[in-house]
Amino acid sequence: MQNRRTTLSLAATLVLAASLVACGGGSDDQPTTTLTVTPVLGAVYGASVTVFNGTTGATLGGGVTGATSGSADILLQGSLTGPVVVRVSLSPGTKYYDEKLNQEVVITSSNQTSMLTVLPALPSTAKKSVGVTPISNMAAKLAGLDPASTSFSIKADKVNDGAARAVLALGLPQSFNITATPVAAKSATLPTDVYGRLLAEMAKLAPTNALDQNKTLADAATAGTVTTSAALTAATTAISSAAASVNTLKGAGTVAIAAPNLTPQPATLTAATNAQNTAISSGLVPTGATGASN
């Protein structure tokens, strides 16, 4: 009799478990959303994308940028609250369009690299998207993250601090959303959106190529500190010239560039941190900005 009761009890448990799975219940049920990730060097094809929970380091999802779109729609599953880290890895065989060279470049083992964007939280927009650019990568390093790492842990205030230091160091307006999704250049016909055109014109003025320019910005940044160099000066000069081209775009608004500020005063840093937090949280693309960093 005891064996029969045990068998019936086990059967009931299995039925209940099956019901929970069928109804989507149980502890494994996790919130999901889709995040569209667009790396920009120009357009980047066949790059690996991984999205991490910035608090726990857990992987939320992954994918590969399309061979023609240059973007990846990443289904995120797990805890979606708090900071989010997006890593794009350009491995041998990945291609990107280089505005300086005006051609597609194939990544080899000698120039493979990773780029980051870090968010204090997922943007509030219904359709969630993020760009991964040389500027967002610099901001992530200033926040204390290493693009080559496979494990990330960061607090939201550090995210905003890194973003603020990046815009100040590059002379960008404090409210310029550096994590927004730019349109990536795919040919000599450059994008007409503010962020995409800024990046494309900046890359065209690189001393060698867009990939080296990205490395220049990354190398200048360590946690909380920007180190000046001739290469960084060349990059900030390129940004200033690029903004002049952006400001000729009809209806784009005006991007005011200030002198680079590598060691901001506390009040300036606080203002920039608050402005970046608001801009990044909105998820909106820049359409011109005033109030240059100073």
Could you walk me through the main structural features you see in this protein, from its secondary elements to its overall organization?
This protein is α+β, with helices and mostly antiparallel strands and 294 residues long. The chain has helices at residues 2-22, 134-142, 156-170, 194-204, 210-220, 230-246, 266-282, and strands spanning 32-39, 44-45, 48-53, 59-64, 72-77, 84-90, 95-98, 103-106, 113-119, 128-132, 221-222, 225-226. Strands 4-3-6-9 form a four-stranded antiparallel sheet. A three-stranded mixed sheet has the order 5-1-10. A three-stranded antiparallel sheet has the order 2-7-8, with no helix packed on it. A hairpin with a 4-residue loop joins strand 7 and strand 8 (103-106). It is globular, with a radius of gyration of 22 Å. It starts with a helix and ends in a 12-residue tail after the last helix.
Query: What is the number of beta strands?
Result: 12
How many individual domains? 1
Strand order of the largest sheet: 4-3-6-9
Q: What percent of residues adopt helix (DSSP H or I)?
A: 25-40%
The gyration radius over C-alpha positions equals 22 Å
List keywords for this structure.
294 residues, alpha+beta, 7 helices, three-stranded mixed beta sheet, globular, four-stranded antiparallel beta sheet, disordered C terminus, disordered N terminus
Topology, pairings included?
Elements lengths: L1 H21 L9 E8 L4 E2 L2 E6 L5 E6 L7 E6 L6 E7 L4 E4 L4 E4 L6 E7 L8 E5 L1 H9 L13 H15 L23 H11 L5 H11 E2 L2 E2 L3 H17 L19 H17 L12
Parallel strand pairs: 1-10
Antiparallel strand pairs: 1-5, 2-7, 3-4, 3-6, 6-9, 7-8, 11-12
Helix pairs in contact: 2-3, 2-5, 3-7, 4-6
